[in-house]
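On clarity, I found the account of how folds are encoded harder to follow than it need be. What matters is that the chain and its backbone geometry are given together, residue for residue. I therefore recommend that a typical entry be quoted early in the introduction. An entry of this sort, consisting of the sequence and the corresponding backbone structure tokens, reads as follows:
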Amino acid sequence: MGLLNKLGIGTGARASRNVSRQTPATGSTVPRGGAPPVAAGSHRSPEAPETNRVSNGLKEFLWNLDGLGRGTLLDLGPAWQTTLNFFIERGFRVTSDDLLHSWKDFLAEEEKRLQIAATSTETIDLTPAGRAARFVQANLEYPPSSFDAVLLWDILDYLEPAVAKQTVGCLTEILRPGGIIFAMFHSKKPESFQRYRVADSSTLQVIGAKPLCAAQRIYQNREIQDLFGRFRTVKSFVGRDQLRESLFVK
């Protein structure tokens, strides 16, 4: 397996807890472990279509972060080098943790776990809440108030409802007071699987990718408000491409 695949940079593959920082001496960008970053664009799969979309949600997200200084950001999508550089150049310490890839792996592990339990005396909580708790505990282990901002993308649409609910609950705890979440929701079942990376302060690149899992739920406004009921501010922008960008401030 090549170095890029191991890091999950530029390929859309999982990059679990891949933390990037600025070195005090040079200000250059380095991933944890000391290896220098590699530009992402040339390593993208050639068949993956890519388009740009103007993002009012991203502009509002950045406006809320303006003046924060050396903040911390959790990106729950793939570790695209362009997104890492964009925020690191603005003084942020960025953690990339591809949650949808983790969800795919969890589903495979869960199936094996249930097969073993069927022929043993092991007891497993088979309720949706129990399944959700196992996933969140295994994949979102961060201390309380660890981050100032979270890029959630459209991940909640692809998680089981109980998992989505517990994921938002966990993110609420690891977000600092005044912290902000940028999320996206499809207004109808998506026709294709997409990933996102930051091109500039008002533009997202939308990248077609091989599906990791099927969409589970299309959330209505009231359901979104209920999910983020502990947040004091909600702001949404509806695009022509059936995507709603939403901001939630703790």
